């Protein structure tokens, strides 16, 4: 259940961050409201996962997945381009999250 709540937190954070760009500095009402609602939901769900998972692990997964998803959204919806170094760095983030989830004993719930 903790991973499902963490997934909801990640999705909410990605929607909020995408809307933050669309809000154009909080000058557009609807994207600005989405930012507030989705960041609130993201942090609430993130706090729930901390009841059963280690904070470092939760944050690594949450932020790593968020970086990768936001990068994809930036490319697809905002036509942002990444050079090789940026792509390699994001690849290392993915590898890091996979190592944590597949190999670390710290991931086990308390």
Summary of the model, kept short:
The chain has 110 residues and is mainly alpha-helical. Helix content is 78%, strand content 0%.
Which keywords apply here?
single chain; 110 residues; mainly alpha; 78% helix
What does this molecule look like?
It is built from four helices and no strands. It is flat. It has 110 residues and is mainly α. The protein has helices at residues 2-22, 29-49, 55-78, 84-103. The chain has one domain.
Present the secondary structure layout.
Layout: H1 2-22, H2 29-49, H3 55-78, H4 84-103
Helix pairs in contact: 1-2, 1-3, 3-4
Share of helix, binned: over 70%
Total of domains: 1
Total of helices: 4
**Uncertain ranges:** none
